[in-house]
From TrEMBL:
Keyword Hydrolase among UniProt keywords: yes
Domain Beta-lactamase-related stretches: 10-360
Database matches in Gene3D superfamilies: DD-peptidase/beta-lactamase superfamily
Signal peptide from the UniProt entry: none
Domain Peptidase S12 Pab87-related C-terminal: 389-465
UniProt KW keywords: Hydrolase
GO molecular function: hydrolase activity
Protein name per UniProt: Serine hydrolase
Superkingdom to which the source organism belongs: Bacteria
Amino acid sequence: MEKMDWQEQFEQAAQPIIDQCQVPGVCVGLNQDGKSMYRRGFGYRDKERHWEITPDTVMGVASITKSFTCVAIMQLQEAGKLEVHDPVLAYLPELVTPDQACTERMTIHHFMTHTAGFPLLPTDYLAIKGLPDGDIADENHPIHKQIKKEQQKWVNTPEDFMEVMSHIDYQLLGPPGAQFSYSNDAYTLLGAIIERVSGKTYEQYIIDHILLPAGMANSSFALQELSKYKEVTTIYRLAEKEGGPEVYPDPQWEEGPVVLASGHLNTTVNDMLRYMDIYRTGGLVGEERILSKASVEQMTYPHVRMGYGQYYGYGLFVTPDYYGTTKLEHSGGLKGVASQMVILPERGITAIAIANLAETPIVELLNFAINTQEGRPADAPSVPFGAEQPVAAADLQAYTGTYRVTVDRKLPVTVDSDVLTLGLGGKQLALRPIGDDYFVMKQDIEEQAIRFHRDQSGQVTSLSVGVVRLPKEV
């Protein structure tokens, strides 16, 4: 049978990007109403051995795991064991932050929606083995600027994790519920709540209550489990060499038993397409009910605005008006991992793309597939932006300054020839104003919006880039 036109259009758009970015392997799958509509592996799960990547290749999905964490929380709520608006101190009484009054107001909902107020913290360096930049023996490692050496310890338990958090020198971004800023730490703490409430390890709970009921036979967390699968990817890294970028295999996967809930599931394209039916059907995978319809509605509700036309639910990005329908999605990235899932529940579409190189433009690639399947140009924007609304040159100065990512990484915003620019990734990116303190920039393939935030006096105090909020340095 000949390929449908949209499949050819997708592959013609995707292959040059895959080649240009030197992606060893990426697999894409789409279902319509739970039935296979498209499966395609581009390249290899092991480039050196020329082993092809397939829909049954086990790969990491990184932060897509957060949606599994939220499913678990909703299941426990259905069982009457917790409520999402419970204070987190009811389950984590030893949690300490720089502002204990704010800590007392933090709820499970705030953790699930990334609105607890946590900035980017260096906890992963003490919780994950195999990080690309995880050598804290280096005297110049940034972790030493936030945690004294004598207070650094390897994280083996949730209690260790909270102890390390209590020693970090940082300030909350604001009171709970005030600001969206993506937080792996909040999700690690959700994993601890799941363990304490259920009486099981996080890993065992997810296996018993999601993976097994959903028939996800090739999915697990423990790296020791990988040897039992027929197909497992090699993970790859990108290094800048004198002759240009070079992709090479890395034998050490990232491993962090305490931080599983924030992003460490290993799975396949086929298993993920089974899982995503939860959101298409209102809680069912086949005849197995994983969640109630009410819980799915609560997970997919646009709880907090996170960007231009986009919101965060529970473990899911929510675009209420995506070309006339609702779009649910989440991406993920770790060393050797790039993943993106999309659900268009009203249209019966579920889609997933997983690659074995972190630098893969995975969101754009899956957008190509969704766009062509729906009859749009492959590069149609995820969120169509409004027309440019010019800002007077004098008014642009209010946005200029330095915005803090971490203690040793900052982003400058300057004005160059009456154009606002952002220093990012070694480039000066022009920012196009579209109103309401939103600006549009193009870093890679697709344009994205960033937003400046003001305090009550009208002063610009922070900047949202991607999923994180960056305070402006005074």
